[in-house]
Write a structure and sequence with these properties.
Blueprint (H helix, E strand, L loop, with lengths): L5 E2 L3 E5 L5 H8 L2 H4 L11 H12 L4 E6 L5 E11 L4 E8 L9 H15 L5 E7 L3 H10 L2 E12 L2 E11 L7 H14 L1
Parallel strand pairs: 5-6
Antiparallel strand pairs: 1-2, 2-3, 3-4, 4-5, 6-8, 7-8
């Protein structure tokens, strides 16, 4: 069951439903899906994935990504690590449902989590890491407002070649809120009326 925490035009973010573990197990074991992730060399059983989903669901900052029209699960997004003292967080996104690739859902989900991070958690900077061969992900992150800030050269070897690990970030002042900002503005207008 899903609940609308952050709502976009195409998708919304919901608390994670641990009963989705079998869908995730299928996705993470599909090489086409996992090739851009750190776990592509791992075999993940249903029991392992269920444990991962239970752990993720117990943190406040990991969400399921759900199609707004069909209520269909696409993947997840969240902050695996947050430095609350300095206001810095790492973000990660996973679109396992290949029917939704290349259609803007990843960009919108990323914008929703950025809105949550900057305007609800009051973060200053959000960063991510991506392998250089993952061109669709890099384009998604750029569309969401991320900029490349550095590289760990030749950090990943796959298919006989070496690839850089790219670090990208976005600062709060570089982000324009669509969801949280409009909610606050509507409340202010209601109070002024």
């Amino acid at each position: 069951m899903y609940f609308k925490k952050m709502v976009g035009r195409k998708c919304y973010l919901s608390p994670i439903d641990t009963e989705d573990y079998l869908k995730y197990t299928a996705w993470v074991n599909d090489m086409e899906v996992s090739i851009g992730m750190l776990f592509s060399s791992s075999q993940i059983t249903a029991d392992t994935e269920k444990s991962i989903m239970e752990r993720l669901s117990k943190t406040n900052y990991n969400f399921a990504i759900v199609d707004l029209e069909k209520n269909e699960l696409l993947g997840n997004v969240g902050f695996p690590s947050i430095d609350t003292v300095n206001g810095i967080a790492e973000v990660g996104i996973f679109i396992g449902n290949k029917d939704y690739w290349g259609k803007g859902y990843g960009t919108e989900a990323m914008q929703l989590i950025l809105d949550f991070g900057f305007n609800i958690l009051n973060l200053h900077s959000i960063y991510l890491k991506v392998f250089a061969y993952n061109k669709p992900a890099i384009e998604c992150y750029k569309k969401a407002g991320f900029k490349e800030v550095g590289r760990l050269r030749e950090a990943k070897q796959i298919a006989g070649r070496r690839y850089d690990e790219i670090y990208m970030d976005i600062l709060a002042r570089e982000f324009t809120s669509v969801y949280v900002g409009s909610l606050v503005n509507n409340r202010v207008k209601e109070k002024e009326s």
